[in-house]
Write a structure and sequence with these properties.
With 90 residues, the protein is mostly helical. Helix content is 44%, strand content 0%. The protein has four helices and no strands. The longest helix is centred in the last third of the chain and has 15 residues. The protein is globular, with a radius of gyration of 12 Å. It starts with 15 loop residues before the first helix and ends in a 21-residue tail after the last helix.
């Protein structure tokens, strides 16, 4: 039986697998992502999995936190590949 989608799936770049990763990290809503540190989320994710996750995961986490914190996100910032460099501010 397939699990119902959470609101996390509304984040660009978040599919079923990353949704589950976010849930495993304790984030179940957009509100729970606000104020989080994407780099720490990525480190915790790697520790939980027991291996170094692809850096693209970090970029999606950066996008996810940005998306959660901005009611009117900039269109270019809704593409995970534009998050390779950490922004000076979110």
């Amino acid at each position: 039986m397939k699990k119902a989608k959470s609101e996390l799936r509304g984040i660009p770049g978040v599919g079923e697998n990353i949704e589950q990763d976010l849930l495993n990290l304790g984030y179940s809503t957009l509100e729970s992502l606000k104020g989080q540190d994407p780099e720490e989320m990525y480190r915790r994710d790697c520790r939980l999995k027991g291996f170094q996750e692809d850096k693209c995961q970090l970029y999606v986490y950066r996008l996810a936190v940005y998306f959660a914190e901005h009611a009117q996100p900039e269109p270019d910032k809704l593409k995970w590949w534009n998050w390779k460099e950490a922004p000076p501010e979110r």
